[in-house]
Amino acid sequence: MMAVDAALVRAVSIDLSPATADPPVADDATVSHAVSHRVQGLLAAAVERGEVAADEATTAAINEAHLAALRTCLLAEETAVLTFDALRGAGVTCRVLKGIAIAHLDHDDPSERVFGDADVLIGRADHGRALVALGAAGFRRDEPPVRGWWERRFGKAIVLRAPNGGELDLHLTLTGGYFGERIDGKALMNRRGDSVLLAGRTLVALDREDRLLQACCHSVLGGGSGLRAQRDIAQLAMLRRADWQATVARARSQGADVVVARGVERAWSVLSLAADHPAAQWAQQFVATDRQLRALASYDAAFSSTWGPEGRSIVAALGPLDRARFVFGLALPSRASLGARDRTLREHLRRGSATMGSSR
Q: What kind and span of H or E run contains 98?
């Protein structure tokens, strides 16, 4: 297992740290882990450069896994283009997030950064117009909302199926829970952003510093983000020279600088990067507030159990009226929402009570 771990970590850290004289050896487990972490492109590049060793059969398996991932990427890119076409036609401002943006803006070879779906951010105020426009373009949502007004105000993202079969995650905020409420979505949308050219269309992504913030959110608050998010952080801070101090300043003004500190610290630790980078030194010395630590703990608890702790954490960032609305919407969802989950209202209230009780 150690040899597998070493091979995968080496692959994810190519160009970030010097190659070793004796390259680690990849095997079938390395390929499987690369697929789980969605770092097939980096593993293929590392083997091609000789920074990870692999026999002929393993090399073939790596290349096939990479090609399969690239086919999925093409579907996701087409989904993003269809999304932008529909939203722009309705006058809705949007930003492409995560894999598509980082692959095309932050890697010399976009095939090194693979992804599984299209992630697009809109403003909460555009929730209704966006759904109408996407519906008219043939997009269909996987599940009905808890309640429309609740989703518009408190929802994190809506999963829709595009006409081409691709998945669209339509984000209303950069992340869920407490920090999703604290991070200023309007500021993200109002900044100029960076352009991504796909299929003759110009899509707009977050700017480099906000992409670094998003990568830290993905790594620290995203549960199963894995090695790809840690590479994204290092890629932006080290190779693309994002102004990490500007990222910290933006996050600090919203009480989210702890997310940047934890993201940087985790990336440097997992990828065994040199500790003399100023961002790593800042992260090592960062001291979180008690409120920030409680918020982070709620995400950790949510990963190991249910949504309850993370869901409850948002309440600390809400005013009294919004707190009441948040709880009311969850306690009394729409009939369509209950039907999609095959629950009666009584069963829903019983489960909700058990979930909240177990999260304490």
A: helix 98-106
Closest-CA residue to 58 (of 25, 98, 28): 28
Read off the DSSP letter of residue 200: T
By three-state DSSP, how is residue 57 classified? helix
Per-residue pLDDT of the chain (360 residues; tens, 9 = 90+): 333 479 999 999 999 999 888 999 999 999 999 999 999 999 999 999 999 999 999 999 999 999 999 999 999 999 999 999 999 999 999 999 999 999 999 999 999 999 999 999 999 999 999 999 999 999 999 889 989 999 999 999 999 999 999 999 999 999 999 999 999 999 999 999 999 999 999 999 999 999 999 999 999 998 767 899 999 999 999 999 999 999 999 999 999 999 999 999 999 999 999 999 999 999 999 999 999 999 998 887 655 544 555 566 788 889 999 999 998 888 888 888 887 777 787 777 776 665 555 545
Q: Which single residue is written with the structure tokens 């043939």?
A: 138
CA 116 to CA 164: how far, in whole Å?
14
pTM of the model: 0.91
Q: Which residue has the tokens 């949504």?
A: 307
Side-chain half-sphere exposure of 68, counting CA atoms within 13 A: 12
CATH number attached to the domain at 74-285: 3.30.460.40
- If we measure between CA atoms, which residue out of 190, 185, 83, 213 comes closest to residue 124? 185
Between CA 306 and CA 20 the distance in angstroms is 42
Going from N- to C-terminal start, the domains of the chain cover 1-54, 74-285, 290-358
Instruction: Return d(Cα 43, Cα 41) in angstroms, integer.
Output: 5
Report CA 283 to chain centroid distance, whole Å: 21
